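Protein modeling request. Please complete all fields; requests missing the sequence field cannot be processed.
Requester role: graduate student
Desired output: 3D structure, token encoding
Chains: 1
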Amino acid sequence: MTTENWIGLPTMQDVAKAQANGWEIEYRCGAQYATWGGITWQKTFVFRGRPRQQKMKEVKMLCWFANGVLYWYSADESPREHWIRQPHLDMVAQVPE
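Delivered output (97 residues):
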């Protein structure tokens, strides 16, 4: 995950509020351990959250040349007959689902 837009959640109350609001929550375990009753437990956790990000999908865009202009259309669209294919200029676009 990227580090942009993440907000530290220092208390469990902050974590609960963020979760209730539908936020994405990430946690990291600390390096400190506690022993109790012969069992070792992780002692520290660090939480951070951010508002849920919009789901994105990748769409392949095919490049075509016509009338001195380049056009990009998704792979499932049909081009016009006189258009000339330019496969070296194809690209992948990120679009909302």
